[in-house]
Amino acid sequence: MQTLDDVIARARSLSLPTRCIVDGKETAARDTYDNVSPRDGTLLNKVASGGAAEIDAAVRSARAAFDDRRWRGLAPREKKARMLALAELMEGELQELALMESLDSGKPISDALGVDIPLAIQTVRWYGEAIDKVYGEVGPSNDSKLSLAVHEPLGVIGAITPWNFPLHMAMWKAAPALAMGNSVVLKPAEQTPLTALRVAQLAIEAGIPAGVFNVVTGFGETAGQALARHDDVDMIAFTGSGAVGRKLMSYAGESNLKRVSLELGGKSPQIVFDDCPDLQAAAEAAAWAVFFNQGEVCTAASRLLVHESIRDEFLAKVIAVAATIKVGDPLDPATRFGAMVSEEQLNSTMRFIEAAKKEGGRLVVGGDRVREDSGGYFVEPTIFADVAPSSTLARQEVFGPVLGVMTFEDTADAIRIANDTVYGLAAGLWTANVDRAIGVARALRAGLVWVNGWDSCDITMPFGGFKQSGFGRDRSLHAMDKYADLKAITFTIRGSID
Question: What residues contact residue 178 under an 8 Å CB cut-off, 6+ apart?
Fold first, then answer.
């Protein structure tokens, strides 16, 4: 894939999946919906629009697979082999999966090829490798008892995943759930169904038994709600908005009290102290931490807090970095900043930009819709200076490429502003003072804190937030815990060893 023409030609030759995968088979739904590409607003294909009937069929299939132990009853090495086989098949279709992701979401093909799909593959492989490395416990009982703590899979896991990193986030849910021996029903975001459907097809080829990994496409108010309300689903794992997260908790309470794990986004601060060890590196991080993936990132550092003594110097550096970020065709390998996922998300971002202007923010970069003649949904990187901590831009999640810059006077002031939000997903700070770094990192109310870098951890570390950013953790071995029950088994030993 060297040129835009090469990529377009390959995209045209793709066979795009359209049907749900239920019980190991492609299954048509009663209805379909138009799957539109944000690159140019054109129709990609018509995809199955699942509802209660399709969800019920998938859940029944998943329950049957769980009950007859066709997956959880396999030896750990056998489950591992099949998950690794799935990772190999995904790797063999890296370019096709990346093209589907770019067409569906509007993200640059370079990111899909270099970041999203490789990380999704890594996730499947990592949890496959972990299967035979998770141990139970032997309790400290006396000589008349033998006590064991063992992990038992929950059963049927409903996963509802977002459109910003479609396959990557789907595998964050599905891979550890499968590794623990569960069956999965995945409902991907309606905007980005393609890669989930294709990987479900590959799972069948990899030898994952029918009914163990099902994918039902459709809308949140139909398929998503049916999954969350289903009485035979043991858990809902969700990444998305706080509004939907609240609904899912309500649906769980109104049905069978299923468990719920929520990752609900954030309003992440990045703090630059006056002793920052590398202002240029910090400026690069400040720009790309909010402009990567068009700002459609739950950990986006959309609040930049700069010490007042270096504000002008540092802001100039961030503006210079932003000036190098050009909006382009997502299928062009040279593009680093693509399209918003939908017209709805574009319009939402523009409303935040207009609100920031009205509330006194000083627009220093961007602020406009661009490439409108393409038919796609493009907003240029945007920076507002002099943003008040109480303003809409400082308090509400934009989920678009809009940065709000604020200043602070001292460490206590920085911590106060950073924590003054209902969210608590991620935060970052730049300082050469080790004591300050440790103290501020501990004081920040966020599940992820990065020092002198941004988004600098990997799958080995847990991912999740505090406060209204949700609860439950993706990534790391900790993610496996939420897909299992911990069972205590105690043997009473009678008689003598004589």
Answer: 71, 79, 83, 127, 184, 208, 212, 213
The amino acid that residue 279 corresponds to is L
Cα 82 off chain centre by: 24
- The set of catalytic residues is 263, 298
**Phi/psi at 425 (nearest 5 deg)?**
-85, -60
Do residues 266 and 190 make contact, with C-beta atoms less than 8 angstroms apart? no
pLDDT number for residue 494: 87
Q: What is the pLDDT of residues 34-76, one digit of tens each?
A: 999 999 999 999 999 999 999 999 999 999 999 999 999 999 9
Rounded to 5 degrees, φ, ψ at 380 are: -80, 155
pTM for the whole structure: 0.96
pLDDT of residue 253: 97
Measure the CA–CA gap between 250 and 55, rounded to whole angstroms: 19
CA dihedral sign, ordered 243, 248, 249, 254: positive
Output the 3-class SS for 131-193: HHHCCCEECCCCCCEEEEEEEEECCEEEEECCCCCHHHHHHHHHHHHHHCCCEEEEECCCCCC
Residue whose C-alpha is closest to residue 289's, from 300, 276, 304: 300
Task: Enumerate domains of the chain plus CATH numbers.
Answer: 4-264 (3.40.605.10), 269-458 (3.40.309.10)
User: What is the rounded radius of gyration, in angstroms, for the C-alpha atoms of the chain?
Assistant: 24
Backbone dihedral region for residue 205 (phi beyond 0: left; psi -120 to 50: alpha; all else: beta): alpha
User: Residues 195, 167: contact at Cβ < 8 Å?
Assistant: yes
Percent of the chain exceeding pLDDT 70 equals: 99
Nearest to 184 by CA among 195, 171, 174: 174
What does the mean pLDDT of the chain come to?
97
Output the pLDDT for position 2. Answer: 77
